[in-house]
Design a protein that fits this description.
The complex is a heterodimer. By secondary structure, chain A is mainly alpha-helical. The relative contact order of chain A is 0.03. In chain B, a hairpin with a 2-residue loop joins strand 3 and strand 4. Classes of the chains: A mainly alpha, B mainly alpha.
Chain lengths: 742, 259
């Protein structure tokens, strides 16, 4: 067994020193470029032996120290001086070179001294060899030059920002040093570079922005801002560390957008308002993209949007009002063409701005809400005395009735109905709409004026989806009633066939309506002509055979009669309402009748008689002659059968315009609202037992908001009424508290 | 008892005379309230057991004096006579206090039960005692709590039998009467307002809340909460005051202020 020879420290170190010298010359660029395996092994073994020798010849500690010293010596003698004599970009290059060299050196030396890493360092809890090397470089080189390096890098960045081409790879390498020098921690990168870089960036963009904001229009500014942000992002991917991205972009956004947000948006000719006016869709999209990035950035934009929409909507309202007042027809209660045009325009406006919300503003909730709020403002203003609820109902009626919009394709109609229902969402008084709609639906159904059953059903479905089943239940009932009525009529005709004596001698069709579904109608005790009286009785008898315990109330105002008018030249069939027929038949017994006589015989109100006589004597077809032949019916007029009347048609319809429905509708709705408020209050108090006034009111408003916006005063009155009716009482100690009385 | 001073003995006598209490009871009441009359009266009347059983026979005699010949009740004539006897104007508000003690159901009539019960409650069994009691009864109106009770009572008492609400004229009359005792500067404006704008009956809720309003809201309306649960009639009243510039910028126009 060969005893290993003890290596003396100085001998051993001298050997190592040679190796290190060779290493250095390799680094400095000498001809030799590498170590042979043999050399490598020798160096390694020398260390190994010196460490494994028995004490006092185990030189681990000394070798460790020498290892460290090697770096020190090399750095101080070669590295630092070479760095110090260079500046700017040259210095950066030199640094990179020296760093790369250092890494090579550390790698090789650690290989040679590897044995120390295996046992010595852990036994003594010392940093491993690579780390030692790194620390040396950091303490001696990095700390010395970091400030200069940083400044050089930053100035290069600024030059690139100004448009110069710079060596990106170099910067990447330099910044990698900042990262790697931390050995896993980003602290050095952040404190020694990033902080200063961000600060410089901030100052840079602050200067730029202060110039741009003065010189540039809003769209131009935004374009520049967008470009800057894009370029900074690219910068990160080219040479900055990825962790800088968020902070960098935030900094830029802050200086370019946040600081100048208000000024930018409010620029006179080119700010948000102007862009909306000029419909600059692309610029608005850019605005959205940019401002969504800064906190609170979108609120002012959405507010301007809301104001713009409200203004446009209100302008439409004013336009319609002006047009109406200019036309000055005497039929002030009938919703005219201008109002219909208005509804159409509102629909178009909605489409236009919804497109903005979808496209420019990417469906952001803030903008949906802005649109909603804006529409709610002007959609509840009404035009020339007619509420929007009425206008919408009339609009629907025009689409759905015969002679309304037959020129539109089915698809177009469906689409329009869809949009109308959407508009309904903005209207507070939905119950008012329902009532107007119901009234007009009744006319369409009873006078057979409905253009297309499918459309009728389709809109009911849409309304149900939007407003709930309760909203449409009555209307659906109305439609069903008609189907049942037709069946009923068939049975009636069978009955007449089976009982010939019962036959009244006139063709009679009766439509039986369920009271709850249909709007309430005043029923008049019209004095029927004798011929018709029998009809009524026959039907009553028939009906009794079908169902007992039901009361029939006759609404003659909705009846239609076909009457043969035997005029001198020819007989013409006149299609008239029952009221008109009753009036005409009076002339079978007397040729001349005064207004008063007619009224007395018919037993109708002044209002109805005037309308009725007007339609027969002052309108398109003059069946009756009027003395004096003015265009207005007065109580002193006298009427005569006009035997000389003729027309080229054999069959004419004499139109009787409906009376003033508006007032009645509003009355009915108010009444229903009172009940609805009562029910709501009772419901709330029943479940809560005790509740404060403010809360009661706000819960009530919320419960009812689906159908209408209740007036707080109205709620207060109902509460007091309920107190008087002993449903509620005030608390004895707190007048603001209410208790439910079981 | 012998330790009583002269003044105290006088007070004792007076107390017994007024309340009809026994010496023992009178002494207890006075002692407990430190020989102050006001306190002693209060104590006495709030403890029914202290009251002596005022001679029921005497009270029944009184009842018979006033009762209507045809009905077993005291009606308008009887009340007139009573007022004469006790030297009080029938319109005097103290009659309201009397009715309150009697828990009378309706004005201008007392049932037998009400009359007898009321007199017992007041510790009266003779016309002399009645007359002596009048100042005390009047003083009860100045007690905050009692005034409220009397005020609330007045509604049910003044309205017609079988009606839920009070006719406007009657209500106005009552308010004039009541707020003469407990001064409220806005009472005349309130009555004007009702006649001009409301012209309908007054509900119980409005009646009772008005007192709250008079008590808590200052006449210049500076602490009036428009979002509060005041009855809507009161809200309208405030609007009326603002509209007609009676209240300008939170100040009651000086010449309208009644102290």
């Amino acid at each position: 067994m060969n005893q290993r020879e003890i290596i003396d420290f100085h001998e051993g170190w001298k050997f190592m020193q040679n190796g290190i010298t060779k290493l250095k010359s390799i680094l400095e660029g000498a001809a030799e470029t590498h170590f042979t395996s043999e050399e490598h092994i020798m160096l390694y073994t020398t260390i190994y032996n010196m460490c494994t020798q028995k004490p006092p010849h185990d030189y681990s500690q000394q070798l460790y120290d020498k290892y460290k010293e090697s770096f020190h010596e090399y750095i101080t003698s070669s590295v630092l001086p070479s760095l110090k004599e260079r500046h700017d970009e040259f210095m950066l290059r030199e640094l990179v070179r020296r760093w790369q060299n250092h890494q090579v050196m550390a790698r090789w030396l650690s290989r040679f001294f590897f044995y120390l890493d295996r046992y010595f360092i852990s036994r003594r809890s010392l940093p491993p060899l690579m780390e030692v090397g790194l620390t040396c470089f950091r303490e001696l080189v990095y700390q010395e030059v970091k400030v200069k390096v940083r400044d050089a890098v930053i100035s290069l960045i600024d030059r690139e920002r100004e448009g110069e081409q710079i060596d990106r790879a170099l910067l990447k390498n330099v910044l990698d040093i900042f990262v790697e020098i931390g050995n896993g921690l980003m602290d050095f990168y952040e404190k020694d570079f990033e902080d200063a870089m961000l600060k410089d960036t901030g100052a840079y963009y602050s200067r730029k922005a202060s110039n741009w904001i003065v010189d540039d229009s809003c769209p131009d500014y935004m374009l520049k801002a967008e470009n800057c942000l894009r370029r900074e992002k690219e910068r990160v991917s080219h040479y900055l560390h990825s962790s800088s991205e968020t902070k960098l972009l935030e900094k830029v956004q802050h200086e370019l957008l946040f600081v100048y947000a208000t000024q930018l948006l409010e620029k006179e000719q080119s700010g948000c308002h102007a862009l909306l006016m000029d419909e600059k869709v692309e610029d608005l999209s850019r605005m959205y993209r940019l401002f969504s990035k800064i906190s609170g950035g979108l609120e002012p934009v959405s507010n301007t949007f809301k104001q713009h929409v409200t203004a446009e909507g209100s302008a439409l309202v004013k336009q319609a009002e002006d047009a109406v007042s200019q036309k000055k027809t005497d039929k002030k209660d009938v919703v005219g063409v201008q109002e219909q045009v208005f509804v159409r325009k509102v629909i178009d406006l909605h489409d236009k701005f919804m497109a903005y919300v979808n496209n420019c503003f990417l469906n952001h909730t803030l903008f949906h809400k802005a649109l909603k709020d804006a529409f709610e403002v002007f959609c509840n203003k009404g035009v020339a005395g007619s509420s929007n609820a009425e206008l919408l109902a009339t609009f629907c009626d025009n689409i759905l009735k015969k002679g309304g919009s037959e020129k539109l394709s089915d698809e177009a109609i469906e689409e329009t109905l869809e949009k109308v229902v959407k508009l309904l969402a903005y209207i507070g008084d939905k119950d008012l709409f329902a009532e107007f709609y119901r009234k007009k639906l009744a006319r369409r159904l009873l006078f057979n004026k409905s253009a297309n059953d499918d459309h009728e059903r389709s809109i009911l479905t849409k309304l149900k989806q939007q407003c709930g089943g309760q909203f449409t239940s009555k209307m659906e009932g109305m439609v069903t009633d008609l189907t049942l009525a037709r069946e009923n009529q068939t049975h009636f005709e069978e009955y007449l066939n089976n009982n010939p004596t019962a036959n009244p001698g006139i063709d009679l069709t009766v439509t039986v309506l369920t009271t709850g579904f249909w709007p309430s109608y005043k029923s008049f005790d019209l004095n029927l002509p004798v011929e018709m009286v029998k009809c009524i009785e026959v039907f009553k008898e028939f009906y009794e055979t079908k169902t007992k315990h039901r009361k029939l109330t006759w609404i003659y105002s909705f009846g239609t009669c076909n009457v043969n008018g035997k005029f001198e030249s020819k007989t013409i069939e006149l299609v008239v309402t029952t009221h008109q027929a009753a009036a005409l038949l009076l002339f079978n017994t007397s040729n001349r009748l005064s207004y008063q006589e007619i009224m007395a015989q018919l037993n109708l109100s002044d209002e109805d008689v005037v309308r009725l006589l007007h339609s027969l004597s002052c309108a398109k077809y003059k069946i009756l002659n009027k003395e004096p032949s003015t265009k207005v019916i007065s109580p002193n007029d006298v009427f005569e059968f006009n035997g000389k009347f003729t027309d080229k048609m054999r069959h004419i319809k004499i139109h009787l315009p409906p009376g003033d429905e508006k007032k009645k509708v509003i009355e009915d709705v108010d009444k229903d609202r009172r009940y609805a408020i009562d029910a709501s209050i009772i419901r709330i108090m029943k479940s809560r037992k005790v509740l404060g006034y403010q809360q009661l009111v706000s819960e009530c408003v919320e419960q009812l908001s689906r159908m209408f916006k209740p007036d707080v005063k109205a709620i207060k009155k109902r509460i007091e009424d309920l107190i008087t009716r002993d449903y509620l009482e005030r608390d004895k100690d707190n007048a603001n508290l209410f208790k439910y009385l079981a | 008892m012998n330790k009583l001073g002269r003044g105290q003995r006088d007070k004792l006598q007076q107390f017994m005379l007024i309340t009809g209490a026994s010496e023992k009871v009178a002494f207890q009441a006075l002692k407990a309230s430190d020989w102050q009359f006001e306190g002693a009266f209060d104590l006495f009347y709030s403890h029914p057991q202290l009251r002596s059983v005022a001679d029921t026979r005497h009270i029944e005699e009184l009842y018979n004096r006033y009762k209507d010949p045809y009905v077993d009740m005291i009606m308008a004539d009887g009340i007139s006579l009573l007022c004469n006897d006790i030297q009080v104007d029938p319109q005097d508000i103290v009659m309201l206090v009397v009715s309150w003690h009697m828990k009378a159901a309706t004005m201008c009539e007392f049932s037998k039960k009400e009359f007898i019960g009321g007199l017992q409650a007041m510790g009266i069994d003779s016309l002399d005692k009645f007359r002596e009691r009048i100042p005390f009864l009047r003083s009860e109106l100045r007690d905050e709590q009692k005034f409220r009770e009397i005020y609330d009572f007045a509604f049910g008492w003044a309205k017609e039998k079988g009606q839920k609400s009070l006719a406007l004229d009657t209500a106005i009359g009552m308010w004039q009467l009541l707020f003469a005792e407990k001064h409220w500067p806005l009472v005349d404006h309130w009555c004007e307002f009702l006649q001009a704008r409301h012209n309908k009956v007054i509900s119980r809720d409005t009646w009772s809340q008005l007192l709250e309003f008079a008590r808590t809201v200052d006449p210049a309306l500076s602490n009036y909460d428009p979002d509060g649960a005041w009855p809507y009639l009161i809200d309208e009243f405030v609007e009326y005051l603002n509209e007609t510039s009676i209240i300008q910028k939170g100040k009651l126009s000086e010449w309208n202020y009644k102290s």
